[in-house]
Amino acid sequence: MATGFITHSACLRHLMPPGHPERVERLQAVSRALDAGTFPNLVRIEAPKAAREALLRVHEPALVDAILSIEVEPGRFARIDADTAMSEGSAEAALRAAGSVVAAVDAVMAGRIANAFCAVRPPGHHAERGRSMGFCLFNNIAVGALHARAVHGIERIAVVDFDVHHGNGTQDVFFDDANLFYASTHQFPLYPGTGRVEERGIANNIVNVPLPAGLGGESFRQMFETRILPALAAFSPQFVFISAGFDAHDADPLAGLRLHESDFGWATERLCEVAAHACGGRVVSALEGGYDLDALARSAAAHVRALMAGSNARH
């Protein structure tokens, strides 16, 4: 079966103030890298808007209502926090970003595709139950994960996050549920300040692997191989989600890890291998960070090539 590529032009209408790193050009770079001429075998799906019901499985009603009720005049911005803002098109973009992961889950469960990459913005993994933060409005990957549970009866769900920043929002949502597994490699110390080894969840269902600035691909692979993959396999997930942030790249301006696109491709391959054995290859990933445009484009392409290889090896 094929790999899905899910996006929507509304995600280009989520504007940030001038000079903000989470800019429209990020998604444009990814889309160019995954152009139909270069990746002709991707199944291209337009992201729908997430239903309110899907958002409320993850977020408090007050947050959902607050984000969706904000009206912004053209050319102006509404500040959510020091790092996070909304423009006139942000509410629809946030709904499409969360809806993309929902649609990916539905397509995988229906057998239309083997796995999928959701190329969307705003990103999601910093959004907690009751707070939008860190460039994120809704937690896209968590919305998709809990949709898989509620609609498709998938009980044991795993998210693996290799963004350079810890996904405090996903950890917040998953922490007290033994059937939800969250594993993260991330630079530490770094924003948002969470992600210590000691943060283990209610049933050791949280696995944090903090990495020091300057760490390169060889050490990253060793940590991933010894800490993340065994814990994921032992959890025996019925669906694997990936928070695919590419800001741990050596060229990225916001952090200090030294990975390259081949490292992201390798990690994706290994996650697909675990998923092939544990859950028939069910994998859905969503774009998180990555702020050097060339590195982001190359990394996203390596990630999708690995997903495509995984789809061909699906059990």
Briefly say what this structure is.
The protein is α/β, with parallel strands linked by helices. The protein has 9 helices and 10 strands.
Walk me through the structure:
39% of the residues lie in helices and 15% in strands. It has 315 residues and is of the alpha/beta class. The longest helix has 20 residues, at 90-109. The radius of gyration is 17 Å and the shape is globular.
Distance linking N and C termini: 11 Å
Structural class comes to alpha/beta
User: What portion of residues belong to β-strands?
Assistant: 5-15%
The number of strands is: 10
Please count the helical segments: 9
| Average pLDDT figure | 97
Could you tell me the radius of gyration in angstroms? 17 Å
Give the uncertain stretches in residue-range form.
none
Please summarize the sheet with the most strands.
8 strands, parallel
Estimated helix fraction: 25-40%
In the sheet with the most strands, the strands line up as: 2-1-5-10-9-6-7-8
Quaternary: single chain
**Mass-distribution shape:** globular
Order of helices and strands: EHEHHEEHEHEHEEHEHEH
Defining traits:
single chain; 315 residues; alpha/beta; eight-stranded parallel β-sheet; two-stranded antiparallel sheet; 9 helices; globular
